[in-house]
Amino acid sequence: MRKSRKAIELRPIVITTDYMTSPLASCLIEHGNTKVICCVSLEESVPRWLRGKGKGWITSEYAMLPTATHTRTDRESIKGKLSGRTQEIQRLIGRSIRNVCKLDLLGERVLKIDCDVISADGGTRTASINGAWVATRIALNKLIDKGHLKNDPMKFGVSAISCGLINNRVFLDLDYNEDSNADADANFVFNSQGKIIEIQCTGEEQPITSSQFSEMFKVSKESCLNIFKTQLAAIKE
User: Torsion angle, CA of 103/227/14/83, rounded to 10 degrees?
Assistant: First the structure.
């Protein structure tokens, strides 16, 4: 099915930091033809339910440009509500980043992550997580350098990737056409120690055997550790 890369080969990943000038931190992350702008903004206050508790919060919003896909999709603001998919993805992004942070070290502040897909070719949620971590890491570095934070709240990195079964064969980092034809697909999120943060796995057309899942898990974990190296390199540039 694939001609340009092997079944368990990642698409080229390019991360451009400081892509936007207004937010505290930002990056453009590209997984092949999937491209997401990830920005982090700071609010020096917390929601009412967190006031007085001495801890902060990290939350995320996710959206796609109408022309990010081959067929134009109306903005969700026009419809007056977020789709279930959008809510699921932005909650996943927020959970993934919070998982590696000690929120009490953030103080009573909120980091808001905006992930805006400008080109969608499969794996938008995993690309968003990868970019969100980069932008959040840069934001925290800036707050530490300016003396706003005494200790680093972030303890580990976060990387994510999609994986699927097509004709009983494992494929890594699915593009849109592959995802549409997959018999089963999954999204894996790991921290930089290779520990599981979240797994979303669905047998769309057929059930997944334990051996197939083990292979999907193995190649996804290995790829995420490699993605983390790319993330670190982008931050250090």
Answer: -60
User: Alpha carbon 101 to chain centroid distance?
Assistant: 15
**What single-letter amino acid sits at 9?**
E
Answer whether residue 224 shows pLDDT above 90: yes
Task: Give the model's pLDDT for residue 80.
Answer: 83
In this structure, the dihedral spanned by the alpha carbons of residues 173, 69, 125 and 79, taken in order and rounded to 10 degrees, is -160
Average pLDDT over residues 1-30: 94
- Cβ–Cβ under 8 Å, residues 115 and 61: yes
The answer to whether the CB of 1 falls within 8 A of the CB of 208 is: no
Q: Which domains does the chain have, with CATH numbers?
A: 13-236 (3.30.230.70)
How far is CA 66 from its chain centroid? 20
Q: Which of 40, 91, 32, 95 is nearest to 62 (CA)?
A: 91
